[in-house]
Amino acid sequence: MKGAVKKIRKPKPWKHTQPITKAELMKLREEFWDTAPHYGGRKEIWDALRAAAEADISLAQAIVDSAGVIAQNNDLTICYDERGAKYELPKYVMSEPTNLVEES
């Protein structure tokens, strides 16, 4: 029997280690997605996770379901593919921190 499908949601509000601008956040995300596939797992799963992270929640659910991703946490911070490979996503790719600052 398959485990219950988790309803995806954005992570709970969180704070970055220091206040961060939108541009810095986008750079962090870009660097993560560029390097993530090198940590193992399948490129198509990483691509699906990125698409889900950048989509709104209802679409994210469909993307994850169709890619066969198994979410351990419903904020997608820990997922597995059907082969059991683990994918860890930092909160900053899923949502913005509460201490996001405006560019000056």
From TrEMBL:
Residues 6-103 form the DC-UbP/UBTD2 N-terminal domain. This is DC-UbP/UBTD2 N-terminal domain-containing protein. It comes from Brassica carinata (Ethiopian mustard).
